[in-house]
Design brief:
Blueprint lengths: L1 H14 L2 H13 L1 E3 H8 L3 H13 L3 E6 L2 E6 L1 H14 L1
Antiparallel strand pairs: 1-3, 2-3
Helix pairs in contact: 3-4
Protein name: DNA-binding transcriptional ArsR family regulator
Keywords: DNA-binding, Transcription, Transcription regulation
Pfam family, one: HTH_20
Length: 91
Amino acid sequence: MQEITHFVEKTTNAIADSYRLKILLTLSQKGEMYCGEVQQLIGLSQSTCSHHVSILIESELVESKKEGKFHKISLNRENFKKLSAFFQELS
């Protein structure tokens, strides 16, 4: 039980930001994005963008893979299913 509550706390904190929510919604439509595309999407500095992406990666809602010298991010759909199942139990 403690594991799932920690997971839910971590993921909901990551989602509770308008920039990160916008990143997640765009990823759900596009499938994957380069970090430079994320920066253009949210219109913030590279360091601020990296901060938001790092929080999403740490929350395990987003995965990152390196392609050459660039990083590409995508949704971790399994963890979204896990989060959804938690909320489903509450309804």
